[in-house]
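User: Quick sanity check before I run a bigger batch. Here is a single chain. Can you write out its predicted 3D structure?
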Amino acid sequence: MNGLDEMLYAPAPLKIEYVKALSELLEWCNILNVEIESVHAYMYGFRVTFKGVDGDAICHENSYGHPEYWESYKMPWDEDDVSTNTAQELVRKIAAMLSGRDWRSV
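Assistant: Done. Predicted structure follows.
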């Protein structure tokens, strides 16, 4: 392998429970038409950003409630902290917020 190949292929283990959590989140994004901006492997899990949204969501070894819950940061409902929601709850709040509806009603 040359240096570029080694840079492009950096094996990092992922835990299947976080892959399943990401799959569920992506499924809800598809159902509710929430676009993903980026997905990064992080601490055996994932960090996800969404188009049109300033905050992000994580699900990994050190996040609250993992792997059943996604921890969000810089979302309006986080109140200058972090909060946890199931994949469905998180995406429903994001969809409401992006469409101009009140996310509190979700």
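Residues 12-98 form a domain with the Aspartate Aminotransferase, domain 1 fold (CATH 3.90.1150).

User: Great, the batch can go ahead then.
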